[in-house]
Structures are given as C-alpha cells and as structure tokens.
Amino acid sequence: MGEDKTITFYTAFSPNGHKIAITLEELGLPYEMVHVNLPAIQHKEPWFMKINPNGRIPALTDTLEDGTQINLFESGSIQQYLVDRYDTENKISYPRGTKEFYQTNNWLFFQNAGIGPMQGQANHFVRYCLSSEPEQYSKDRYVNETRRLYRTLNKHLQDSQSKYLVGDKCTIADIAISSWANITAFAGVDISEFPYVGGWQARMAQRPAVHKGSQTPKKVDLEKLEMDPEAFKTYLKTNEAWIKHGMDEDRKK
C-alpha cells in the first residue's frame, strides 16, 4: 500500500509535525522527510511558499493517480487525506459515513480548533518575552483555557470504556491530541492534574509508530532541556528570534 507513491513530508520539531509523522508510521507509508529550518526562515522561502502559501509547517506533497502533484497543508487536512487515501483497512480511522467517523471528526476538530490554538498561545506567552508590556492577563487567559480543554478531554477518557477517544481503537484524533498533550508543561500546564489523560498518554507512548513519529525530525526533550538553565535559555532565544522576525515582517505588509 502506497509503495508506488511519492510522499514528501516537510516538518520541524512541532506537535503538528509529530502527528503527521505518527500517522504516516501507523499506516506504514514510505515517505521522504524534509527538515524545514525555522530559525533560518526556510518556511518563508519561495520554494516552500509554493507548497504552503501560509508559510507554516507541516506540509506534505503526494503524487495522485493521474501523475499530478497535490500540495497539502494544515495538519488536520493532511491527516484526513492520508486516511481517506491510504487507510483502506481502517487501522486508525472508521469508514466514512459511520457514527464513529463523525465522532472522530469531533475530536480531531477539538484539537485543531481548541487545544492547538489555545495551547500554542499559552506556549507563546509563558515562554517568550517579545514585549515590555505586562502579559499576565494573556498568560492566564490561554493557560486556563488550555486547562479547561484538558479537563474536557479527561472527563471523556474517564467515561470511555475502551480508553480511546472513539470506539475501540486509536484514531487520527488520538494521534492529533496526544501530540500536543506531550508538551503541556511547556505551556505551563501540569498533565498530572488530568490522570485519565496521563494514562491515555502512557498507552499511546507504547505504540511503535508514536515512538518513532514523535522523534521526527529530531526529538527535543523540553523537560530535560529545562533542567539546564543556560541551554534552555539559548533554545528559547533561538525561537524568539525567528518568531519576532515573522512578526516584524507581517507588520510591514
């Protein structure tokens, strides 16, 4: 399945990138991985903007049956494409039109519209200082909203008989949310507050595809890194530089 296709996956260290890598690994699809260098602003270079006009990772290209190339961006869209085209045995999805198919979409969009944006903003305001203005309100707003979303997830997992989000198996929704749940500490959220999420995370981590995909392109152990204050400061400053560059460029336009 998929051996005669050409999939190229563009990514960097990111939960949104990890969920695509994990999806590819779960489906056993061959792919070429291109590490997009964010500090070097490669995601804004013309070659990449042709693939994703929004200038964000992840992105993916594939060859269709008629020989033409399709460019895909937005992680939820990429996940849905991969299972629609390649998950013919419904390993990590349910047949289109079933109740479970739509329930999977509920939780996939819960991540894409809720956890991703809110936790991403919490990451920004908790970790990066790009303004001299007080930011406590912003931190409280996004950290507390992230905690609310994980409380919702925790209650759902508590009530789930299978201990997965939908039905009796791992789906792209589990992959999408667990990739973000791996880095809650970076957003100032203690995952131990949500024991059912923690148990689910432990089960997900035992999956070989999750282990491999979460290290693509290269694993950054944020908790270990934070134990070395100087190394962690350097990591944050490197990220601050390209984030600020993007903000400055957007301000000019």
From TrEMBL:
Entry GO MF terms: transferase activity
Endpoints of the signal sequence: none
Domain GST C-terminal per the UniProt entry, residue ranges: 97-231
Domain GST N-terminal: 4-90
RNA-binding in keyword set: no
SUPFAM superfamilies linked: GST C-terminal domain-like (SSF47616), Thioredoxin-like (SSF52833)
Keywords tagged on the record: Transferase
Keyword Transferase assigned: yes
InterPro entries membership: Glutathione-S-Trfase_C-like, Glutathione-S-Trfase_C_sf, Glutathione_S-Trfase, Glutathione_S-Trfase_N, GST_C, Thioredoxin-like_sf
Family of the protein in this entry: Belongs to the GST superfamily.
This protein's name: Glutathione S-transferase
Upper classification of the organism: Eukaryota, Fungi, Dikarya, Ascomycota, Pezizomycotina
